[in-house]
Write a structure and sequence with these properties.
By secondary structure, this protein is an alpha+beta fold. It has helices at 3-33, 41-61, 69-79, 90-97, 99-105, 158-179; strands at residues 119-125, 137-143, 148-151, 154-157. α1 (3-33) packs antiparallel against α2, α2 (41-61) crosses α4 and α2 (41-61) packs across α6.
Length: 184
């Protein structure tokens, strides 16, 4: 991969980090004004936008196709990224990319003793220790204090991912200034 193509990918990674972090800021603002009983759609809109752009950063830096892996290795080396980033997690982005499949294949767990399936979606809760929620299936569930997002049985630490994206954004910005001053 030539240096101009590297610069193009670094610039695109920077843009996707910017988009994700703007969505995270909007999510934070929506959460700040959220009160129990309010509609939650706006909170989850911003979470979804954040996660989609974070998944794009992940695909740019850790491409899933075997014939593109060298690109990811080169970009991560150029940027000096460590390998233990949460945003790297394949499972994280697969849940976003294959949302339709998760929804299609979902079978609600039955709880006859409680009158049927226990299903939570688009719920914001200030705490994770609500005992009655532990047995419920969580499609989209946010613990607002910890900013941990439950999505089809997996937990995504939104704040940790945002911090990682800030780090990646800064590394991209610094790289562009030092290698291609006109692209930053």
């Amino acid at each position: 991969m030539d240096d101009d193509l590297v610069a193009t990918f670094v610039h695109e990674t920077l843009l996707q980090c910017e988009y994700a972090l703007r969505a995270y800021d909007d999510f934070s603002l929506a959460l700040e004004f959220y009160k129990p009983g309010d509609p939650t759609e706006l909170v989850f809109f911003h979470i979804q936008t954040f996660l989609i752009n974070a998944a794009l950063v992940s695909k740019l830096l850790w491409p899933p196709q075997s014939n593109r892996k060298a690109r990811g290795v080169r970009l991560r080396a150029e940027l000096g990224l460590r390998g233990d980033l949460t945003v790297r997690t394949r499972e994280f982005r697969d849940h976003i990319e294959h949302f339709d499949e998760r929804l299609h294949d979902y079978e609600e767990p039955q709880h006859p003793e409680l009158g049927g399936p226990l299903y939570l979606d688009l719920v914001v809760s200030p705490t994770s220790d609500v005992p009655s929620f532990e047995t419920w299936e969580k499609h989209r569930f946010l613990h607002s204090e910890s900013r941990k997002f439950h999505f089809y049985g997996k937990v995504f630490p939104l704040e940790d991912v945002a911090k990682e994206l800030e780090e990646i954004r800064e590394k991209c910005h610094d790289w562009l200034i030092s290698h291609h001053p006109g692209l930053d």
